[in-house]
Amino acid sequence: MSDPLKKSAPVLEMADVRKSFGPVAALRSGTLSVTAGSIHALVGENGAGKSTLVKIVAGVHRRDAGTLRFEGADVDFSSTAESKAAGIAVIYQEPTLFPDLSVTENIFMGRQPLGRGRRIDRAAMLAETRAIFERLGVDIDPRRPALGLSIADQQIIEIAKAISLDARLLIMDEPTAALSGVEVERLFAVARSLRDEGRGLVFISHRFEEVFDLCDTVTVMRDGAYVATTPIASTTPDAVVEMMVGREIGDLFPKQETEVGDIVLKVDGLRSAGTFRDVSFEVRSGEIVALAGLVGAGRSEIARAVFGVDAYDSGQVTMAGKPVRPGKPRAAIAAGMAFVPEDRRRQGLVVDNSVAHNVASVIRTRLSRLGLLTTASENKAVGPWAGRLEVKTNALDMPATTMSGGNQQKVVIAKWLATSPKLLIIDEPTRGIDVGTKSEVHRLLSDLAAQGLAILMISSELPEVLGMADRVLVVREGEITAELARAEATPESVMKAATAGREALAPELPDVLMKEVSA
Amino acid sequence: GGGDGDGDGGGGNGSSSITFLPKNLGNPYFDASSTGGERAAEEFGGSFEEVGPTNATPDAQVPFINTAAQQGVGALVVSANDPTALGDALEEARDAGVKVVTFDSDVDPEYRDVFVNQASPEGIAESQIDIIAEQIGEEGEIAILSAAANATNQNTWIELMEEYAAETYPDIEIVETTYGDDDDQTSFDKTAALLQSHPDLKGIVSPTTVGIAAAARYLSTSQYKGQVALTGLGTPNQMREFVEDGTVTAFALWNPEELGYLAAYAAHALVEGDITGEEGDTFEAGDLGEYTVGADGEILLGDPTVFNADNIGDFDF
Amino acid sequence: MSATLTRPQAGPGRGAAVRGVLAGAVRSREIAVAVVLILVVVAATLRNDSFVFSSDGWRDLLLTPSILLLLAAGQMLVIITRSVDLSVGSTMALTAYLTGRLFIDQPGIPIPVVVLAGIALGAVLGVVNGVLVAYAGVPALVITLGTMYIYRGIMLTWAGSDRITADQMPREFLALGTQQVLTIPVLTILAVAVVAVVGYYLHTARSGRELYAIGSDPAAARLYGLKVPTRVLTAFVLCGALAGLAGVLHAARYGSVTSSVGNGIELQAVGAAVIGGVAIFGGSGSVWGAAIGAVLLVTINRALPILGIPEFWQRAVVGALILGAVVLDRVLALRRARRLDEEREH
Amino acid sequence: MSALKPTPATAGSGGPSGSGGDARSERIYAAYARPAWQRWLFTRETAVIALLVGVLVWANVEVPNFDGPLTLYYLFLDLMPILLIALPMTLIIITGEIDLSVASTVVLTSAMTGVLCIDLGWSFGAAALAAIALGAVAGAFNGFLVGYVGLPSLAVTIGTLALYRGIAVGLLGTEAKTGFPDEWTDRVKERIGESSYPQVLIVFGVLAVLFVLLLHFSSFGRGVYEIGLNDEAARFSGVDVARTKLLLFVLAGAVSGLAGVYYTLRYDLARGDSASGLELQVIAAVLLGGVSIFGGRGALHGVVAGVLLIGVITSAMRLQGETENVTTIVIGLLLVASVVTPSLLAWASGRLPSRGRGKSGPGRSDPA
Ligand SMILES: Nc1ncnc2c1ncn2[C@@H]1O[C@H](COP(=O)(O)OP(=O)(O)OP(=O)(O)O)[C@@H](O)[C@H]1O
Ligand SMILES: Nc1ncnc2c1ncn2[C@@H]1O[C@H](COP(=O)(O)OP(=O)(O)OP(=O)(O)O)[C@@H](O)[C@H]1O
Ligand SMILES: [Mg+2]
Ligand SMILES: [Mg+2]
């Protein structure tokens, strides 16, 4: 844990910072030291606690324990206003914009330039926005409302916001996730110039090529704890991944060979204006089909349309030969579909409801006798499913809010397995789930496929896609650009199909993962 | 209710306990009548209470009638917001031994013991039409600003006014009847609307104290002041300044305090058993002297007074 | 917010077309209401030219909406922060009564003192609402429903059955209700001035813009470090103060204060804001829209009898108007969304 | 085909306390985290019921004539419209919506009954059925705009609040319809045997049971709560959010129609100005009964207790000779206290242990 960068003063120092949300220990010992004039990478798996650490620095959350020093002084921010005032700018992982306000106002809210008589100087504000956009090389009208901006554009507004703050510490939590190659390059140029001005930067990303391209130091986190800090120059992607994953990764993708059966789901020429078009594919029983692509490619939208949560403009969805009524999740469920959505807390679960009510939420019509439903009958039906998935909870009437992300995901899966589906659509099955649970989920998916279930999986984690799928469909900007059999699917082939046409950086996946994937 | 705890709380609340239930509270006309009622109660040594709703609607009055029945008061003195809607509640109160007197605005005769009438409807209607006819030279358009669209006494008067005007003053045309709901602001705005929609309007009759005062206030600051005549039923105190500044020449009203006073005495007489509500029964009503119950249990207060610049100084209510 | 978006001049890039559409939609909202208002006035005037062209007609056209105008402006401030204030009618009743009481109990009291006292009482009542909503974190609808009852009850208890009549208030004060400057009633000037100040504040002050931000996304506002509770409290205080002023003006205009002052006017104020394009869940709308909405609501009521629609149907027309406004908003929003989709599709 | 079994332990049902000896390592879950008495005692609903009992005892002891035979009879007659409408209103508020147009629907249906029965000479039964149907249509209009067009219910029902009453006032004008058949008007006031309970209470009782079954013992009811807690997640689990909302508004309209018929009979009258302010009384009672205005929380027994609480307080204070204003203040204070108290408790308990930590943390849930 020695600090190799003594040469210039640290802007930010964190040691042994702890934070729990109820029973979930999101951060067990967060340690980070950022020097002025450097770009510091923070890497770790989903749920490693990176965002939590960032939010503590920003004053969104307050730490339970540990030290936090900014520019040499102990600080304890109780609101984001305080951290901002101190000179810290943060780009959060999820864009947080005011949809009704203009882009310019979003950038300057709360600290608009004032003219005479403390009036907002709109001309100055607009000019400054244009200057920032010029520097970033983006082409967004500063006067349009934020409502309706694409995720990438929203992310750019966040970046502009942070840059305009003129802060001494700039933290960027996965700013590139939704950006194209050109936009990424521009962002990097700005980041480097900020570094050269002597500011400290923290950069969080899952893309190692970016980390190794941009940063000079890297800190690795695992399971909410600090692992190591090393200069980029003296490490390799392989070494970083080893530190990140830390434990037996061999059985992370326990894919079984299965017997592929009849066509269960058939999607034909699905189109939704502005989101996706010409989407056709099929999924057979016993088969795991993955939808791969960059974040924002429209995979989730396709899945939502298939399941009927969203309407689509044209095309057809067929289950076991019978057309499924569009726009009606109930019809999809009746046809044998199950859907584990990407956002657990907002879509997958009613987090304020009990475990029992959540697990029973789809099957409860079936549990009713003469139209009447009792808690006892729900509990009776739910118990075994909770057991099957080894859900950790004190009692079935505990609200799901109290559970960890991995346990919540198990509840969602239990709720859908209870419907005895023919097809399981699962969007980001292991997002924000710890490594142990992750392999449990993978084993479960594999078992289910072996028992004859058809599975359509969406994942942004390439290893997961390559490790679990029998077939990979690559989506780019709303279109399926490639269909790859398990044997053909390599990181290169998938990334090529996902980024073709965009000036993407060469996808270099660390060797470790490649080996492990092809095992 | 449960079993315990009565002591003497539950039992007979004295014989001459009188509850006044006006159409609504916060109305100066009824404030005056209640003052009269209270004075009467003091004189004959009974207890007096005033209850009532904020809005002048029958459904809001019913719970108060029910409560009076539960309390077993001696007599209930009501100005009804509807002739039939209160009927059942009043009947139940009478079954519980409560004497029911109506004043100002009656219910159907079978629901009450006596009705203390301020003046005969014909008298009221005719005197107002006569006043306005004189002021506008017996010809031209006039309009009526009433209280609530469902107010019984108002509607009776308006009907009689229409008949009388048609017979007696063929050149007078009643062009519109509008409703101010006995609400100050509404009456004010409705006056403005009347003047607006009928540019040739010569006069306004407002047979309600709230309406005439609001209309006078509007007129007094309007271009029509002195050109559009206004009369109706109003209290002298409210109308004094408008008579003085010439907005209003003459208007009529009985003395509402005397009306309340008489109603309280009638209630007292019923409670004491001096009268039963039969035609021909007589009773003493304090300062006002002796009164006789007429047909249908009606007791007539007397003729309305016409107020004008000469006599308005003599009155204070 | 309109001002930032209503200038569809040239700007670089692909956003220009989209912005034109958006600006058009936002802009058309206030204009649409204003056009309806003008149509109503023109139609009524054609039927009866005294609706505009007579000294009373002109005066009442401007004067009658001024009280609702103030209430709608205040309500709009609260609604853009994603709250609502149902207690304004009761607040107005209390301050109207206070006005009369002061004139009766303190003979010779200067009129400006009374006006300030009314505004101050309104502000204090607004503080009560604001503290409960902003700091106790309780939904505004429930709190202000409660305080609507409480304030009204206090007013009735305080006033008892007595009422304030014109002869109890000084003539100069009552004259405020009808005085005109260059044929424009003083009360109207006052109300429009207040609306202008509010509009200026919302447009040019940081805290004004923050009200929009809070209503647009409260969670994001907190993440930004905006002082959410303070701002929400401010909105309630301003709303209360404006209701207080409305109460004073009511006393001056109608010359009498009874227990029923302001009964049910809270829903009219909300309705006026909604008609004027203020989004009921916050974040967007202009005080001008709310003001025009208030004028339309009042004027349509006055015009209907002239247009030959019996007065009994007025309320139904008002209801239809509110529904029409809400549906129109949705239609515009859907059209906007569809355009954006097509934009992305090229 | 997909032979997915909930694994070995199908036998081990979800009994409260796991009888540990079930063969495999399979886990048995307790159904409840707390014993039954705690689950029942520490709820909002219990608090309201306790308060109601307290007020009843106080009124019986302290308020003259409250223990008389007429008190409860009138109490129920007066409260009937609120009791009735509170049932569907509870469900609507639990989904996170609101209906301000109920009182206007009462008046509209009452006017309709009057016009059909008195003017057009329909039999009362037919007129009443038509009125209830009209109420359902009025509710369907609200429900369509809220559920399918996706408009905010607050704005929609402020509009229909004016519209429906406006139509009633327009239909009736100056007239008050009266003279409904005696057999019907009397029936409304009849008592159950010799008791002090009016027979209409039976109608309410039947409806209340139906609504309790619907909300607390049916799949539909679970959906109602889910919509209130998280309508997106509800949609993802196959709850038809739009249809549910439509149905609830239709129910509110139909029950308001029934209340309109009741109103007509109770006062033998159809007038445009009846039932003013009823909508806010209903909402106040529902909120007082422990239903969250954000949706997702509340129970019907609490709501019924809330309505009765308001009724008993009003009745007792009227018997004591208090004016309406005082009652109004008391009910307003109760309403504010009932929503502020939980926040205050949470705030107090959140502050006490973590002393010294200044202002409340930022992670608080959204207001409004
Ligand atoms: N507000 C919260 N309440 C409860 N648990 C939370 C909360 N925020 C985060 N967590 C949990 O804390 C853990 C760490 O989350 P965090 O967002 O910091 O991870 P991360 O490293 O940023 O992951 P990712 O790469 O997916 O962004 C996760 O298990 C997450 O579910
Ligand atoms: N708020 C938004 N406004 C406009 N367009 C959006 C918005 N959110 C998403 N989109 C567009 O919808 C499409 C799909 O976005 P989304 O992020 O759901 O895709 P995805 O492939 O499912 O990504 P993920 O890996 O996050 O699941 C993209 O074209 C994106 O630009
Ligand atoms: Mg993160
Ligand atoms: Mg997705």
TrEMBL record, chain A:
Keyword match Metal-binding: no
Keywords assigned: ATP-binding, Cell membrane, Membrane, Nucleotide-binding, Repeat, Sugar transport, Translocase, Transport
Entry-linked InterPro entries: AAA+_ATPase, ABC_carbohydrate_import_ATPase, ABC_transporter-like_ATP-bd, ABC_transporter-like_CS, P-loop_NTPase
Record bears the keyword rRNA processing: no
TM region(s), chain numbering: none
A GO MF term: ATP binding
Cited SUPFAM superfamilies: P-loop containing nucleoside triphosphate hydrolases
Domain ABC transporter stretches: 12-248, 258-502
Protein name as annotated: Sugar ABC transporter ATP-binding protein
Organism: Nocardioides imazamoxiresistens
Top-level taxonomy: Bacteria, Bacillati, Actinomycetota, Actinomycetes, Propionibacteriales
Automatic annotation (TrEMBL), chain C:
Top-rank lineage group of the source organism: Bacteria
Topology of this chain in the membrane: Multi-pass membrane protein
Pfam families linked to this entry: BPD_transp_2
InterPro entries cross-referenced by the UniProt entry: ABC_transp_permease (IPR001851)
Protein's UniProt keywords contain Transmembrane: yes
Entry keyword set: Cell inner membrane, Cell membrane, Membrane, Transmembrane, Transmembrane helix, Transport
TM region positions: 31-49, 61-80, 86-104, 111-135, 141-160, 181-202, 232-252, 273-300, 312-332
Signal sequence bounds: none
Cellular localisation: Cell membrane
Assembly behavior: The complex is composed of two ATP-binding proteins (LsrA), two transmembrane proteins (LsrC and LsrD) and a solute-binding protein (LsrB).
Function statement: Part of the ABC transporter complex LsrABCD involved in autoinducer 2 (AI-2) import. Probably responsible for the translocation of the substrate across the membrane.
Annotated protein name in UniProt: Autoinducer 2 import system permease protein LsrC
Organism of derivation: Nocardioides imazamoxiresistens
Taxonomic lineage of the native organism: Bacteria, Bacillati, Actinomycetota, Actinomycetes, Propionibacteriales
UniProtKB/TrEMBL annotation, chain D:
Subcellular location: Cell membrane
Keywords for the protein's UniProt record, in alphabetical order: Cell inner membrane, Cell membrane, Membrane, Transmembrane, Transmembrane helix, Transport
Membrane topology: Multi-pass membrane protein
Pfam families attached to this UniProt entry: BPD_transp_2 (PF02653)
Annotated CDD domains: TM_PBP1_transp_AraH_like
UniProt keyword Zinc present: no
Region described as Disordered: 1-22
Transmembrane spans: 41-61, 73-94, 106-139, 197-217, 246-265, 277-294, 326-348
InterPro entries linked to this entry: ABC_transp_permease
Record has Oxidoreductase as a keyword: no
UniProt name for this protein: Autoinducer 2 import system permease protein LsrD
Source organism of this protein record: Nocardioides imazamoxiresistens
Upper classification of the organism: Bacteria, Bacillati, Actinomycetota, Actinomycetes, Propionibacteriales
